[in-house]
Amino acid sequence: AAGMAIASSLIAEGALHHALPDTPWRTIIVSLGYPIGFLVVILGRMQLFTESTITAMLPLVTKPSGWALRRTLRLWSVVLGANLIGTALAGGMIAAGLLGGSELRTAMIEVSMAITELSPGATFVNAVPAGFMIAILAWSLPNAREQSFLVIVAITYVVAIAAFSHSIVGSVEAWLLVFSGKVGVAEALGGLMMPAILGNLLGGAGLFALLAHAQVRGEMDGQGEN
To answer: Domain spans of the chain?
Structure first.
């Protein structure tokens, strides 16, 4: 469900892209559509791969074990697989004209073509800060409470306006380009999706989990002393 729901980010961006003139400031406004999918997914309590990286990683870095590693890898695989199936369905439906008219579909394709401008290496590097920021989002939400809406919008808007690579939103775009005949399946999987997935993992599970682990360990040590 989350994979299909996150497609609302691309739909919103496409609608804004279509409605606005081709000006230097259009990207600033179009990027306001990006948080929509995250709002739907997070407030709807669906599970997104990039959110699960930090929650799955903390038990592993706190108490490393083979069992914890297998459990983490299994969770990632299940969530990622489900997300990619959902994004493939969404991309196919958009390409088939089932989610909007031809003008909106053309606008969404134009928005999606931006991911083809980066090499696989650049996509990987670009995905690291995206993974880190979405991990910050997941880490912050339990304490955000009434401010959850603003926290989600603020962090994901920065990801959009900075043109960072998010593996799940990017996979909707990649599948749309595949089903529209703009790129091949091999290029979409190996050149667009996989570098973004690995970069998000490094930024979310690697960098942020280590920083969060240090905080959690400090709190646990403090409680132990008391």
So the answer is: 2-225
Asked if 120 and 175 touch (Cβ cutoff 8 Å), the reply is no
Instruction: List the Cα angle 99/101/103 in 5-degree steps.
Output: 125
Q: Is 143 exposed, middle or buried (0-12, 13-18, 19+ CB in 10 A)?
A: exposed
pLDDT above 90 coverage of the chain, percent:
62
Asked whether 195 and 70 are in contact (CB, 8 A), the reply is: no
For domain 2-225, the question of CATH label 1.20.1080.10 is answered with: yes
Among 136, 114, 126, 121, CA closest to 183: 114
Backbone angles phi, psi at 124, to 5 degrees: -60, -50
Instruction: Label residue 223 by pLDDT band (50, 70, 90).
Output: low
Once rounded to an integer, what is the mean pLDDT over residues 174-182? 97
Task: Give the model's pLDDT for residue 144.
Answer: 81
Vertex 203, ends 202 and 208: CA angle to 5°? Answer: 110
Q: pLDDT tens for residues 37-52?
A: 999 999 888 877 777 6
For residue 17, how many C-alpha atoms fall within 13 Å in the half-sphere facing its CB? 22
**C-alpha span between 81 and 188 (Å, rounded):** 15
Cα separation, 79 vs 67, in Å, equals: 18
Q: CA-CA distance, 42 to 191, in Å (whole number)?
A: 28
Structure confidence at residue 189 as a pLDDT band (50, 70, 90): very high
> Would the pTM count as exceeding 0.85?
yes
